[in-house]
Structure formats: structure tokens, C-alpha cells
Amino acid sequence: MATVTDQPQRRAPRPRADAVRNRERIVAAAVELIVEHGTELPLDEVARRAGVGNATLYRNFKDRGELMRHVVLTVTDRISAHAEQGLAAVEADEADSFGALRTFVHAAADERIGALCPILHATFEHAHPDVVAARDRLTVAVEGLIARARATGQLRSDVGVGDLMVALSQLTRPLPGTGCMDFDRFVHRHLQLFLDGLMTPARSELPGEAATLEALRQE
Amino acid sequence: MATVTDQPQRRAPRPRADAVRNRERIVAAAVELIVEHGTELPLDEVARRAGVGNATLYRNFKDRGELMRHVVLTVTDRISAHAEQGLAAVEADEADSFGALRTFVHAAADERIGALCPILHATFEHAHPDVVAARDRLTVAVEGLIARARATGQLRSDVGVGDLMVALSQLTRPLPGTGCMDFDRFVHRHLQLFLDGLMTPARSELPGEAATLEALRQE
Amino acid sequence: MATVTDQPQRRAPRPRADAVRNRERIVAAAVELIVEHGTELPLDEVARRAGVGNATLYRNFKDRGELMRHVVLTVTDRISAHAEQGLAAVEADEADSFGALRTFVHAAADERIGALCPILHATFEHAHPDVVAARDRLTVAVEGLIARARATGQLRSDVGVGDLMVALSQLTRPLPGTGCMDFDRFVHRHLQLFLDGLMTPARSELPGEAATLEALRQE
Amino acid sequence: MATVTDQPQRRAPRPRADAVRNRERIVAAAVELIVEHGTELPLDEVARRAGVGNATLYRNFKDRGELMRHVVLTVTDRISAHAEQGLAAVEADEADSFGALRTFVHAAADERIGALCPILHATFEHAHPDVVAARDRLTVAVEGLIARARATGQLRSDVGVGDLMVALSQLTRPLPGTGCMDFDRFVHRHLQLFLDGLMTPARSELPGEAATLEALRQE
DNA sequence: AATGAATGAGTATTCATTCAT
DNA sequence: CATGAATGAATACTCATTCAT
């Protein structure tokens, strides 16, 4: 039915079928390599891993910063989707709100949120519109989860979204030079322990003030 | 002429007075820079910060690996001292055992345990005798603290020393390019939350198995 | 059906209508960019300025050298036309012969004789038949102008066609990175001064020997 | 007599005897290569020509721009010295003032003033204090020569220092890819002709306005 | 025939490490 | 001993040219 109207419109997007694939493969390879070797990885290595020439990488991403930004956007979007999904479940089904938070945290870890550490760099373009938008989307969704968990009295009231996201990023931050496999065994334990610490009743008083993701913008 | 008789007595202690100072300044500068800029920093920068020529650095430390090892040893030793001191206090005075653990964790953060991130690299010589010895010393002391806290029923029984140390290292791991100052504001909050999660009664079941520091030797 | 009979007639002129246009636009873009940014400009830039894909450029011009050659030929031909026109005027109308030389020099500058700077490169194919032919045509015409100006006693007798053409090229040679607009303000002054120096009576003795365009073939 | 006071002060400058030599050799090689191959020359080639490793070049000159700046400063200073020497001769000895200008122009050509074309680039750091100072020094000296030549009625009054310097630079601008040897044969002829055009009585009217070196600052 | 994409070879620059003073 | 300088081996990035659509 709708296909009739679709056909004439397809001319523009088509010729890039393989180019789009290359782009995706480059970002995927970059995520992998950031997880394995940290953010200082050689871009030629990314290109090789993606199975393309190095210049193809540069055709798609003007420089290292742009590639990093796309990695961040890609991973952030995936994680936002998890958060929104969890939030929808909680709102729709009256599900266990803290459980939704737990589920989200572990899912974010599996999505390699630790690879987002570049976003925490002072040198990273925190002000780029796309980055701001992605961060805002994630913040909104996670704040929703947090508000729900707080509303049901399961989450202590003195923690902010930044506390959760920064600790989550740090605890899952990849170990350079490793396949990460061994490390994964421990990470979910640490997350679980941290989540336990977020529950009510609060067992200690927190120093400082609640962090926000915006506050990480350096300078 | 009378001074001649003095000279032989000076042999042992004197010749290294400033050399020792140089060594210490180099390690101190390295710790600072690792905390500020991560482990990939230029060694010339370390030398400059230490106020010595770069060749002096290489005279004292054969290569980057050796310098990193000494950084790790220095920081580990300081942290071990804190752990042992806490343990002694607990054993002597029947003090609050979980409180001792808390005190130790925050002290380790202030001692820049985050500078131990080189130990997280696969390329680091985890098997070097000095490193093994330092790690063992720290492990013993922290295990003592853990045993005490467990004995008084305040620490949940399903966490190992590795869980504590790895999570502690990760949560305090510096963000490259950061003056770290802003970050410090949050770190103690995260540690406090994590510590809350370590208390009894356990609020969740932990996946995987307890980590040990030895297990961090990758590959 | 009747239209079928029309088709055979179209063979010769039609198939190249837009192709010819493309060729011209590419050369024009190249001239512009050489004037603005020197000869080291990226060919992709030329294609973009011409509004065609880069591959189209390569379909028309095998490589950089061939494009440069066509630029040189195009510009040279235009300048030859000016010279021949000036010569015709002088011969027909007994006009002011040195004035014709002046007019030619400024016209050549406006035709962007500075874009001939590729001809100044040692790597340029000075011996290519088309280049030789174009250069000979220009040389003949300019020599005619010079002969006339000399015959009327206005042009000093110790300067050759090469002196004129090389100095003219150099004085109008574009400065890379410049929009050239500002530079244009000065160029005609310098040309005027140089032309004044060509007039009789000679005010100095010239060192070396008269240059010829052929002598620019380096090595 | 003065040597007594000199001896104790010599300690500082000594240890760099060879380093200073390297620096000079790098600049000299850069001038040579700019003359031969233009400003886009590979820096590795400069290092090789200077007989040092490429990193030595970068130790001495942070980047391409800094090397270029020092080339410009070096050449400009040498040329300024010529101009000042000529000016001193004219002022002291009542020598032929236009002859002094001629002598200066040919000397500047031999000092490769044509290699200064980078100074005319829009991308060059025209505002750098050292460049400004060097340009001012040169401008002052040449303006002195011009004023003298004008005062004696030999130089036409409608040309500015910028007219002279830009035309001089352009006429002596090296031909990329050549040993320049052949070209040198012609350059002094063109300069001589241009200089003739500068003499009184003026043989034509000049369009536009007198250029200044400052006006070449792009944008 | 025309295009956008892909590629490899080249160039600038950085940094760990060694050498000469 | 301590130092500044020198070096070669990376790595990021550009561009002429070729390929697939």
C-alpha cells in the first residue's frame, strides 16, 4: 500500500548502501578499540579493523575529534534507548522502579558506557550541539528513572543523576590493553554493590554535592 | 689539611643526598601528572615538572615501565601504611571496624590510588617481584580490615578484597586532561555510596565471583 | 516515428554539448584557483569549484599535468590574441607602437598571465607540441610588437621578448592564499614602471643576455 | 683591555656551540630549498639537507610556521643590513643616491629576497612581533634610501617603498623545481629595467596608489 | 558518461630513548 | 653525575588517482 509512494523517492538514499555500511563499521571498530586500548588508539588501526583504507575513515570523519563524537553519540543513543525503555515499562506497568534502575545500569554497562570516557575529557567538545542534545536526552530519561525510584521510596534522595552516571562510567571504564573479557566478570558485581548503596535507607551521609553531567564540562 | 680526615666518614650517606631527592621528585611529579593527564603523558614533561633534565630521569629509571613501576610501588606502599594503621587501630582499640574500612578507603583516594591505573594496563609488569611484594603487603592489610569488618557483622560476606580494591581504583581513576579538582568533589560521594553497598544486610545478590588483585593480571 | 529520421543528423555536434561545457568550466575553475592559491591546489577543489564530480575532471584530463597544460594553453591563446590584435592595429593604423606594447602588457595581466606560473615549474612539459605551438604563436606576435616599437625608436634595443614575458609573468604571479584583489591594485603600477624602463633612451646597461621563452626550460 | 671583563661571562653561551651551528644550518638549508622548490617543501628534506634528524628541526622550530618565520627574519635582517649600509654610505659620502638604490636592489636579489614570498602569504604571521620589527627596520632603511634618491631628484616621486619591495620580491621570486642558476642570468636584467623605470623624468602616469609593506597584510 | 567513494603514498609532528658535553 | 641535544620510530592527516555504481 504505502510502497507505491515509496518507490519514486528511493533514488537519493540508495547509492550509498555500502558507504553507510562503511561508516557504521568504522564506528563499531572504534568502539571496540576504545574498549580494548583506550582513547589514544591509532586511527589507522580503526580503519584496518573496519576493513577500509585509512583515507576512507577521514572521508567520513574529518578528524579524530569527529570520530570520537560519533562514537559518543552512537553509544549514548543506545543507552538512552535503554533508559527510555525502562522508564516506559515503569510508567506503563507499575513495575518495580528500583529494579528498572538496576536493569538500566547493567544494560548501560553492556553497551560499553565506559567507552564514553572521552566525553569526560576536558578536550572533548562538550558544547557541540549533537553532544548536548544526546546528553540531554540521556539525562532526561535517567532522571525519569531516578524520579520514579525516588517516588516509590526505594532510592535515597541525596543522589543525583550525575552521581549515578559518573560512577557507572568509571566502574565500567575499560582497562587499556586487554580484551576486557576477564574484567567483565567483576564489573557487574561492582555495579550491584554500588546500586545497593543507592537504596533506602541511606547508610551514610554524602560529602560534597550531587553531580550533574553538565558539571563535568571542564574549565 | 685537617678536613682530609673527615672525608672517609662521609662515604655512605653523602654521595646520594641530592640523587635521592631527584628520584623522589621524579616519582612525585609522575604521580601528579598521571593524576592530571593519565598514564600516556610525555616523560619529558615529568622531568620538567620534577625540575631535572630528561636524561636524569632515564639515569634513575631505565624506561617508562620502570618509572611506572616505582610510581605504583610508592603509592601502594603509602596506601598499605594506611591500611595497616587502620588495622592496628581496630585490633588495639576495638574501634568501629567498618568505620576503619571507610576511613581507609577515603584515605586511599586522597593518596591518589587512582594513580595506580598503570597497574590496570595489560603491558604493566604485574609479575615483577617488587610489585608482587607490594601487592601482597596491601592485600594482607586490607584483608585484615575486611576480616574484622566481617567479624563484627557489618560487612557483607560475599565481597572480596579484589572487589573493594578494583572498584576503589576505578572510582578514583583520573580523567585525562582534567585538573582533577572538580572531579574530587564527586569521588568521595561515590566511594561513600559504594561503601554503603558493602554493608550488611546485603541488598542484592552478586553475579560472578569475588575478584582478587592477582586476577587483574590480564592474559 | 518521424523523429527517428532526425537522430542520425545529431551525431556530430550533440553528444558533446555539455561535455565541452564541463571541460571549459574545469579549466576556468583551475585558472581562478591558481590565481587565488597558487599551483599546488587540490584538484578536488577545482572539481568542486567547477561544479562537477572529481572523476569528471579526471575523465577530461588524465592527470594534474594535463590539466595544467590546458590551463597554460588556454591562457596563452587568449594572450596571443591580444598580442596579435595589437600588432594588427599597429601595422594597419600606424598607431603608437609603444602604446600598443603597453596596452598588450596590461591586457595580459588582466587575462591572468600570472596563471602561467605552472610554466615556470621545471616539471612542466615545456616540450609538449601544443605548448611549443602556443608559445611560438605568442612569441611571434610579441616579437612583432617589439619589432615595431623598436622600429619607431621608442623601445630600447637591448631587451628581448623573453625579458618582457618573464618579467611580466613574475610581476603578475599570484601570491598563494591571497584573494589577489588587493594585489591587483599594485600590479599595474609595477608593470607601468617596468614598461617605463623599457623606453628609450636606455638609462642603464643590462647585465647578462636577453632571455627567450625557450630558455625557461630548466635543466 | 676589554678582554679582562669578558672572560668570566663566557660560561653560559659555550655549551651550545654545535646546537647553534645546527640551527643555522637548518635555516640555511631552508632558504636553499625554498629557493629551489618553493615554500611547500618537505621539512624532512630540510632536515636531511642540513644533515640533522627531522626531530632536531622540530626541537629548534616548533612547526613549519616557526621555521618560516626564522627564514624570513634571517633574510630580512641581511637585506636590512645592506640597505642601512647603502644609506650610511650615501649620507656620509654624498655618493650617488640612485646608484645606492641600484646597489641595494641587486644585493637584495642576491640575498634571495625572493625567498621572502612567504611573508606575502595570507597565512603567514604578519603580526608576529619579530616580523613586525624586522619589517619596520627594513622599511625605515629603504625609505631612507628612497628619500635620498628623491631628494637628489633622481627618483620619481610617485613610487612608494612598497612598490619597490613588492616588485623586487616578485621579480626575484624563485622558480620552483629549478636550481635557479639559469634564472639568475635574467633577474638582474629585469631589476635593472625596473630601476630605470623608477628614474626621473617619469615616463608614464601610475594607476592606483603607492603600496606599503603593511598593506600586504591580508584580510 | 558522470558521479561519489575508496585507496595508498606522502608529509607534518610527537615522543621514548640515546649521545655528547 | 647531570644535562641539553639528537635521533628514529610512531601517528595523524592530505591528496592525486582509481573503482564501482
UniProtKB/TrEMBL annotation, chains A, B, C, D:
Highest taxon listed in the record's lineage: Bacteria
A GO molecular-function descriptor: DNA-binding transcription factor activity
UniProt domain HTH tetR-type: residue ranges: 20-79
DNA-binding region location: 42-61
Pfam family, one: TetR_N
Keywords: DNA-binding, Transcription, Transcription regulation
SUPFAM superfamilies xref list: Homeodomain-like (SSF46689), Tetracyclin repressor-like, C-terminal domain (SSF48498)
Residue ranges of the TM segments: none
InterPro entries: Homeodomain-like_sf, HTH-type_TetR-like_transc_reg, HTH_TetR, Tet_transcr_reg_TetR-rel_C_sf, TetR_SbtR-like_C
Name of this chain's protein: TetR/AcrR family transcriptional regulator
